[in-house]
């Protein structure tokens, strides 16, 4: 026993030093700063907007951690895919109780996209903690916008626990007037180059909250040891059809295809990593979409062999590329009617009808990008005002 005890004393300082060194270098999420969260909401009634990405490094869900801290959690507001992130894209999310904790879960997806006055009656503050992927059409940031509006209208505080942006670029068309939707609430580019905390500051500061009031009572708990452009690998898939880093990286470029006749691989184990159509002219790679519980129970071209391309081997570092759209539009025979099977949806995803018209005209990627330049330059100037972290140089 004496020998073991002596060794323990000798080793402890080394272990402590390693831990301190790790903490000095690793990204510390807003959600990890439970002491600061507790100070902000002590003795207040709390609502949470979170999902399966709301975890701490040890795998503990933030809801469980906050309950352990003794916080008065009244309810969870569930976004698209549900609180546990298991529902299909676009599936109706109902109100329920969380099986583990018994906390009421209220849907804010579907018809009820904004917490109602009745739902906020027993809430003093809402905490938002969801991993974003940096794309305007990713609906969790739309949920955040509407929750901020609800809080502004009811004079409730809104706290954002910040997380990194895995697609940290400023690129793509800025959403134009007349193209507002749940996949494009705010006039920002497809890739907005912000964390959710910074985006919340922009929504507030630019007066985009339509409640008759200037802003909501916003507080952001920023990350530590992160800067813009810093690569990150997400420990939990952010939504059912983004199962890995490859899908997250390709998502901003491939989501446009949801408004076309081309499958993005839903109904397979590699969604947003392949493109195809039942017509053999689209390529040699084959896949057959089938219902996959928790991912897509009714995928496009269910049970039909699709021909196209496997993008998992494509050299693609990230950001937004139009090469996939241009390539597959050309494979269609440049047939607008055949390719843009849901033109309205495509335009909402793009935030404008200009991109579709430019593709039909046969413009090159360089020419299309040139048309975005003025809007992106103006947006970058706005963006600077709301940054919480050192910016990238690109």
Strand order of the largest sheet: 3-4-2-1-5-6-9
What is the average of the pLDDT values? 90
**Radius of gyration using CA atoms only:** 22 Å
Write the H/E string, N to C.
HHEHEEEHEHEEEHEHEEEHHHHH
Counting DSSP E segments of at least 2 residues, the number of strands comes to: 12
**Number of helical regions:** 12
Poorly predicted ranges (pLDDT <50, ≥5 residues)?
A: 1-21, 85-92
Percentage of residues in strands: 5-15%
Output the structural class.
Answer: alpha/beta
Which outline best applies? globular
Fraction of residues in helices?
Answer: 25-40%
Main β-sheet, in a few words? 7 strands, mixed
What is the terminal-to-terminal distance?
59 Å
Task: Write up what this structure looks like.
The structure is a single chain. The protein is an alpha/beta fold and about 400 residues long. Helices cover about 30% and strands about 15% of the residues. The strands form three sheets. A seven-stranded mixed sheet has the order 3-4-2-1-5-6-9, with helices on both faces. It has a three-stranded antiparallel sheet with strand order 10-12-11, with no helix packed on it. A hairpin with a 6-residue loop joins strand 3 (about 95) and strand 4. The radius of gyration is 22 Å and the shape is globular. Residues about 1-20 and about 85-90 have low confidence and may be disordered.
């Amino acid at each position: 026993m004496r020998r073991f005890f002596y060794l323990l004393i000798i080793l402890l300082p080394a272990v402590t030093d390693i831990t301190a060194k790790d903490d000095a270098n690793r990204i510390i999420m807003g959600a990890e700063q439970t002491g600061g969260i507790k100070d902000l909401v002590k003795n207040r009634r709390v609502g949470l907007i979170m999902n399966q990405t709301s975890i701490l490094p040890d795998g503990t869900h933030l809801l469980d951690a906050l309950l352990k801290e003794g916080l008065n959690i009244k309810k969870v507001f569930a976004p698209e895919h549900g609180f546990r992130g298991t529902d299909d894209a676009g599936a109706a999310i109902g109100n329920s109780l969380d099986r583990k904790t018994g906390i009421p879960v209220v849907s804010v997806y579907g018809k009820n996209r904004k917490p109602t006055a009745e739902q906020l009656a027993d809430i003093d503050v809402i905490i938002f903690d969801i991993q974003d992927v940096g794309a305007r059409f990713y609906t969790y940031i739309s949920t955040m916008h509407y929750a901020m509006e609800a809080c502004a209208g009811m004079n409730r505080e809104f706290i954002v626990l910040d997380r990194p942006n895995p697609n940290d670029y400023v690129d793509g068309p800025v959403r134009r007037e007349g193209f507002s939707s749940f996949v494009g609430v705010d006039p920002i580019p497809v890739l907005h180059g912000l964390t959710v905390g910074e985006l919340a500051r922009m929504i507030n500061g630019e007066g985009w909250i339509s409640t008759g009031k200037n802003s909501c009572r916003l507080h952001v708990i920023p990350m530590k040891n992160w800067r813009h452009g810093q690569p990150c690998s997400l420990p939990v898939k952010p939504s059912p059809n983004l199962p890995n880093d490859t899908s997250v990286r390709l998502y901003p470029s491939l989501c446009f295809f949801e408004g076309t006749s081309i499958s993005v691989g839903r109904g397979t184990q590699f969604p947003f990593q392949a493109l195809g159509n039942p017509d053999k002219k689209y390529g040699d790679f084959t896949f057959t979409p089938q219902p996959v519980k928790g991912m897509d129970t009714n995928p496009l071209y269910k049970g039909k062999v699709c021909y196209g391309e496997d993008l998992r081997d494509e050299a693609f570092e990230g950001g937004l590329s139009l090469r996939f759209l241009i390539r597959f539009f050309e494979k269609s025979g440049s047939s607008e009617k055949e390719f843009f099977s849901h033109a309205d949806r495509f335009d909402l995803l793009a935030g404008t009808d200009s991109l579709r018209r430019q593709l039909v005209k046969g413009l090159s990627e360089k020419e299309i990008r040139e048309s975005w330049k003025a809007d992106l330059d103006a947006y970058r100037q706005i963006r600077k005002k709301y940054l919480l972290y050192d910016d990238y140089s690109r």
